[in-house]
Amino acid sequence: MPTPLLEIKDLHVSVEGTEILHGLSLSVNAGEVHAIMGPNGSGKSTLTKVLAGHEAYQVTSGSARYKGKDLLALEPEIRAREGLFLAFQYPLEIPGVSNTYFLRAALNAHRKHRGQPEMDAAKFLEVLKEKAKQVDVDPALLNRPINEGFSGGEKKRNEILQMLMLEPTLGLLDETDSGLDIDALKIVAHGVNSLRSKERGFVVVTHYQRLLDYIVPDYVHVLFQGRIVKSGKKELALELEKKGYGWIEEELAAANPGSVKV
Amino acid sequence: MVATETTTDVLLAAFENSKASAGPTWLHVLRAQALDAYREAGLPNIRQEEWRYTPLTSITRQTWRVAPPDAGATLRLIDIARLLPVGMEAPRLVFVNGRFSTRLSTQGRLAAGLHYLSLRDALESKGPSAKVVQAHLARHAEIESEAFTALNTAFFEDGAFIHLERGHDLSQPIQVLHLNVASEAALSQPRSLVLLDEGSRAKLIEIHAGIGNAPRLQNSVCEIVVGERANLSHLLLQHEDDAAVQINMHRARVDKGGAYASRVFSLGAALTRNNAHCVLNGEGAEATLGGLFLGRGTQHLDNHVYLEHAKPLGTSRQLYRGVLDEKSRGVFSGKVVVRPGAQKTDAQQQNNNLLLSDDAQIDTKPQLEIYADDVKCSHGATSGKLNEEALFFLRSRGLAEREARSLLTYAFCAELIEAVKPETLRDALAKLVQARFE
Fold this sequence. Notes:
The complex is a heterodimer.
Chain A: E1 6-15, E2 18-28, E3 33-37, H1 44-52, E4 57-66, E5 69-70, H2 76-81, E6 84-87, E7 94-98, H3 99-113, H4 121-134, E8 145-146, H5 152-166, E9 170-174, H6 182-195, E10 201-205, H7 210-214, E11 219-224, E12 227-232, H8 235-243, H9 246-255
Helix pairs in contact in A: 4-5, 5-6
Chain B: H1 2-17, H2 25-41, H3 57-60, E1 65-66, H4 77-81, E2 92-96, E3 99-100, E4 114-118, H5 119-124, H6 129-136, H7 147-155, E5 160-164, E6 174-181, E7 186-188, E8 191-196, E9 201-211, E10 216-226, E11 231-239, E12 244-254, E13 259-266, E14 271-280, E15 286-295, E16 300-309, E17 315-324, E18 329-338, E19 346-355, E20 361-370, E21 376-384, H8 388-396, H9 401-418, H10 423-437
Parallel strand pairs in B: 1-7, 2-6, 5-8, 6-9, 7-10, 8-10, 9-11, 10-12, 11-13, 12-14, 13-15, 14-16, 15-17, 16-18, 17-19, 18-20, 19-21
Antiparallel strand pairs in B: 2-3, 4-5
Helix pairs in contact in B: 2-7, 8-9, 9-10
């Protein structure tokens, strides 16, 4: 067995003293796409934030290893340079910081980390334009401050553009489909699919099965009350779409009386 | 206040021995009145509302002398080149310790209609400039209510005289550098006049800088008149450090249809008090006042803005931003006064502050006084820390924490910098400010 790309074991995570993840375990191999579904408040965003290293999310016990290394010991920027990427659910507007400037600084930080020379401005712009085209982002937008004056869909596509530029090994997509119309959804999915390879893995967090028509997962997990309570192949997503989450609660209650707060 | 008594006496003696004491009778009378006013008032103190947040201990704890005439004699062009944001190409008047340096200045090929020389040369000139000085000097800045202006008026030696005649448009910015250099505690008191006649346009870059470790106190006064439909863009760059104490008064009058834009970039000093006093004196006059003040260590940066809408249809915009690190302290006090009859005034005032440490402090006091009933006025102030979510976002893309902080801090300043023209000046400022946050 090769070392999994990401291996989470019994992870407990608290936010401001309240435990959100109650012992989550998940293993993602290179080349795989895992979808994580679950009702609101089940801990989906907490999982992606804690993996990316947000300080507000505190790991109280358990472990997360990335490429065999202790992920939780790394600063967020080191995680990023090691190839972990989080596409945010709610991309921020950052006045005063231009997209182009910031993205080139980020890319060059990655390159430096890998011992590669900096990419010069001309080459960078050439690559950026090409990738922007791929996710249908108007290059004129990129001279603006990050996400300032972007529509909801543009913000999401901008996240994917950043991912295309940084070419991560492990992509975490936090409800990247929310608020997207079907055309934008296809563009985003196409962007993600273009990165799929046997070296890379993805964890796709979503509410809706719809996204998974376009980014077809290898595995689907149901996150419920801070744990993964059910895992299956892509067909599980269709079943959830049809039947909702109620049947999972019932199954859990039957298997483990008293463990589920309804 | 023993120290200040001493300072006044020392200054008086130094002044009587200097060439500056020569001059026309009207100026002697004016100086005597100013000295009386200063002696009457004394230095301001924190019991006065306008000085409540700005103690003057860095001034009162020592005796100040005027710098000896040879201070700065060894300065070379290369020493001042780095202080000039648009470089040596643009014409410049250079004042060392408040005295004109012919050697370091270059008036260039003077544009038509431009009088660009030292105030003393203007006073001594045979041409019309002497009369123009008499008509304006101390006619705008007040000696009764402002002790520092009184002190400056009593003792100033020299300063810039800039007079652009009617209808002339300067394509090139002009520079005025006030450089303070001394081997022991020294006071300089530059006094300037900037006069734009009807329909003329100019860009002025004023730089305050110091060299050396000896304490430097600069008490400057600059009177500005923007005539009817004239347009002055004025940038003040304060390139100082912990040895400097700066008290500056910029007193502007904007006539009918005229526009005055002032942007102050304060990169830090032990104490800086910038007084901007602007009166929109004619219908449809405009003022855009703004500033960026960056403090660190135990620096104290105080911006006091008084903006008066005296006539109808005026527009004013104010944006001041402070970035305070370590134990530095900032003060913003902005008062907009709309006089009775100044209808259709449109005034906005904003002050935002970024506190980079728990020990940094800002006192902000935006005020509106409105005596007209058909006006549109707004004001506001904010203070806060760097946005933690933005910081996390940048780090999650691979930027080091330090770099992310620096980028966001610069971003807070960017709006004020982006508005600067020409591009060469904007880029020079951007570099200076970026360097501060690296």
